[in-house]
Amino acid sequence: MTNKVTLTQFLIEQQRGLPDASGTFTLLLNNIVTACKQISHKVNRGNLIGVLGSAGTENIQGEVQKKLDVITNEIMINALNWTGCLAGMASEEDDNPIAIPEQYPRGKYLALFDPLDGSSNIDVNLAVGTIFSILRCREGVEPELEDFLRKGTEQVCAGFVLYGPSTMMVLTTGHGVNGFTLDQDIGEFILTHSNMRIPEDTSEFAINMSNQRFWEPPVQRYIGECLEGKEGVRGKDFNMRWVASLVAEVYRILTRGGVFLYPHDLRDPSRPAKLRIMYEANPMAFIIEQAGGACSTGRERILDIKPSAVHERVPLILGSKNEVERIVRYHKEDGQAQ
Ligand code: AHG
Ligand code: MN
Ligand code: MN
């Protein structure tokens, strides 16, 4: 392949298109990229460097941390805290927002991340990822909790890296979605998937079927109709996938369409949903909408929600537009029926 466009070149060319850009944002993204290359290396080396298994600790969500949850969190923090680009950070693995150490200058952005998504996959050698979201912050102040709790529509950038057979970064700054593949030989991400678009229709769904008895009626109806296949009201057969890694599910949907549901469920009234809005649902919703898809809780657009806590959970339904709209319609019809 000649004329390879590296991610660095792509970012700098984008920056040139913005007359007031200072380069801070490009610097920030370059350091996220550096962190993700380090994570890719650790994930790839696995037990050769003793990084698999449990760390023996719990995060604020009561989840047992894997060694790699802790290691990847440290990699992200150490790659970003010194840059002068950030006013603060928030991570799935830290109870509270992470302050920038005294000795470093403050910047105008906030970074929120899930350093290792799908971490239950790591010990069985399946796909995992990193998800990040960038917000603008008031300048010249130590950010308060309220500075983080912003609607998804206010994101200036969102992306994820999938550590799969290839390591891939997918990125949006609000002008479409582009995918880059890590060329391990030269250590650079190369633009391989320009302007990714999600087909509006699909016959593939992703849901954890083991939770079926806890779903609400609209999701029961939707999945029930998919399972009826050709003989049912949909008049076609559906296929199912469940990777247990949001990054891998979203990447599949970006490449061949589909719909993903981690819906509201009635298993535990204190925890009506699983995925977290600020560093899972919001960045994925930004990417999915920019690629022509849709993203909802079933009752409202994800990007319009005003979060009330950094680790707030939200029902998540995303993917091919017509299918997500159908599921939203089923929620409306269910509301009218009550
Ligand atoms: P994390 O590893 O960051 O906690 O996220 C895991 C998430 C998500 O990636 C995936 O879609 C979902 O949990 C899988 O949940 P189940 O194990 O309930 O299927
Ligand atoms: Mn996650
Ligand atoms: Mn995680």
Structure at a glance:
The protein is α+β, with helices and mostly antiparallel strands. Helices cover 31% and strands 22% of the residues.
CATH superfamily of the largest domain: Fructose-1,6-Bisphosphatase, subunit A, domain 1
Q: Radius of gyration, rounded?
A: 20 Å
Mean pLDDT: 95
Strand content: 15-25%
Across the major sheet, the strand order is 3-4-5-6-7-8-9
Structural class: alpha+beta
CATH topology of the largest domain: Fructose-1,6-Bisphosphatase, Chain A, domain 1
Largest sheet: 7 strands, mixed
**Run of helices and strands:** HHEEHEEEHEEEEEHEHEHEEH
- Count of DSSP strands: 14
CATH class of the largest domain: Alpha Beta
Q: What's the arrangement of secondary structure elements?
A:
Elements: H1 7-16, H2 24-45, E1 54-58, E2 64-66, H3 67-80, E3 86-91, E4 109-117, E5 128-136, H4 145-148, E6 155-163, E7 167-172, E8 178-183, E9 188-193, E10 204-206, H5 217-228, E11 239-240, H6 246-256, E12 259-262, H7 277-290, E13 294-296, E14 316-319, H8 321-337
Parallel strand pairs: 3-4, 10-11, 10-12
Antiparallel strand pairs: 1-2, 4-5, 5-6, 6-7, 7-8, 8-9, 12-14, 13-14
The site of one manganese (II) ion has 5 residues, from strand 4.
